[in-house]
Design goal:
There is one protein chain. This protein is of the alpha+beta class. The protein has a domain at 8-98 and 111-135: Aminomethyltransferase beta-barrel domains (Alpha-Beta Plaits). It is 23% helix and 32% strand. It has eight helices and 17 strands. The strands form three sheets. The protein has a six-stranded mixed β-sheet with strand order 8-9-10-7-1-11, with helices on one face. The longest helix is centred in the middle third of the chain and has 16 residues, at 151-166.
Length: 307
Amino acid sequence: MFVHYHQPAAVILASGEDSLAYLQSQWSTQLVYQGENQATYGLRLNRKGRILADGFILRKNDENFLIISYDCPATDLIPLLEENVVADDIEFEDRTDGYKIMSLWGGNCEDISSHMNFRLPKGNSLVTSEIGLIFWGRKTKPPNIEILADEEQTKATSKLLERSTEEGILTIANANALALARIESGMPAIPVEMGPTELPQECGLEDGAVDFEKGCYLGQEVMARIHSMGQVQRILLPAIIKKEVHKALPADLFLNEKKVGELKSCFYEKSKILGLGMALVRRNLLQEIKTSGLSLSPSDEPQIFIK
């Protein structure tokens, strides 16, 4: 099993009597569940249903929540969250500097939980332990384990991590390895690969990140309309890259001379293939795109192939 320690882009404490009701109106997934200790992934959309941010909302009780985002900085996310506060009793506080995440993937989750002496979450539950808050992540499929730890818990977890690597149970991996595993799983990074010009349905986030039974949240009408009327015109998919990319990303992708999409990201691992990335392409041309491959300039030889 692999492990990577990293600091999330945002850890935000939301507190106040109106926290639950207000966050429910801002997030794309259902937060009003019975009981405490919930970990719910979702999106902050604009009124047109485009993706502005994503993250996990960790519910400790009705008045205290932690909002965790892998890639959306707290300096951007807090203004978004505050945007619609009027007379609501809710405050947002940046706690990012005090936390780290340990991402675990690519192995038997039960074995590692037994070895490190923590309980695996059930469904969307949040497990509180001595080494941190444990929940299912969105880095890989099947879901990876995330352990959110404060400074003291990080010290304790580091000792467990050192012992586990010495015993060969865990392998320490870098950020690039985690990114490659994420792309292999087809999981989008927000806002790097999908952002304010894209819809959740274009990157497969309608399953698990959008609640179609829930009403009255930003972007809800657009989500319901797409859900009832049909599919979107573009789709985000993993791509094999067989030539070094020297253009700034996102970069246009061409099928012969026709622009058919954008390359959103690119990560290299030369021991396997030259590179992996995520590409947003036209759905109606998908079969031809997969058969012929894509290029970064019109009429060039194909060097990018959709998986």
